[in-house]
Amino acid sequence: MLKVYSSEMDFLYMEDKKIVHQKGLWHKVFSGILYDAARQKIYFQTIFPKETYSFERPDYMDFSVGGHVEEAESIIEAGLRETREELGLKISSDQLKFLGIRICNCDPAPTYKIREFQYFYGIELKNGIEDISFELMDEEVKSVIEVDIGDYLKLLTNNLSKIKAREFLLDRNTRSLITSSTTDITPERIIPDYFTDKSILEKILTLKAFMEEN
């Protein structure tokens, strides 16, 4: 069950998460971006196609962690749980850096409506990619993509049309690493409203500032 809110973020009542998206009810989610401050890298994930999606979703690269804030959880508790469930990472709250809230109001399909208060956090990796145990990741994760944060900002601001990244492709069944290779990232790999929404740019700039403090 999820908490349903008004558009002004006043709590209203509890509702099943399926109904929340069918009816387009406002709710809260955790959105996390893994980062390696020492190497100035941030991490994304791609997912295998889901039968539960009622709309076409190309092979976009999404932020590292994302999920609903459930009935009895705080935002932080949801973030710790989602990071453990999706990426197999056990982190502490001091590894989370608050980046701000994004308001998402869109309808990917007539039967799937998104009305979300997205709480964005940076998730610090102490040892970079070495902290990630691929075999512990959720079965929906198809790959992990490592990007230089400066290059990603240039892509978001149209100062570059293509950047280099490292992509770690996983076996769907065994979760073992299949390949690690250099790949080209263009704006077409970014979720369209992430590319056009200045709120996303703001979150990445805030994360870059945190990373440069270290």
What does this structure look like?
The structure is a single chain. The protein has 214 residues and is α+β, with helices and mostly antiparallel strands. The protein has a single domain (31-94, 123-213), classed as Nucleoside Triphosphate Pyrophosphohydrolase (Alpha-Beta Complex), CATH 3.90.79. The protein has five helices and eleven strands, in the order ββαββββαβββαββαα. It has helices spanning 17-23, 75-87, 149-156, 192-196, 198-213; strands spanning 2-5, 11-15, 27-36, 41-47, 62-63, 65-68, 96-109, 112-124, 141-148, 163-170, 177-185. Strand 3 and strand 4 form a beta hairpin. Helix 3 (149-156) runs antiparallel to helix 5. The protein is globular, with a radius of gyration of 17 Å. The model has no long low-confidence stretch (mean pLDDT 90).
List the helices and strands and how they pair.
Elements: E1 2-5, E2 11-15, H1 17-23, E3 27-36, E4 41-47, E5 62-63, E6 65-68, H2 75-87, E7 96-109, E8 112-124, E9 141-148, H3 149-156, E10 163-170, E11 177-185, H4 192-196, H5 198-213
Parallel strand pairs: 3-8
Antiparallel strand pairs: 1-2, 3-4, 3-6, 4-5, 4-9, 7-8, 9-10, 10-11
As residue ranges, the low-confidence spans are none
- General form: globular
Report helical residue fraction. 10-25%
Beta-strand content bin: 35-45%
The name CATH uses for the topology is: Nucleoside Triphosphate Pyrophosphohydrolase
Q: Write down the CATH class.
A: Alpha Beta
Question: Can you summarize this structure?
Answer:
The protein has 214 residues and is of the alpha+beta class.
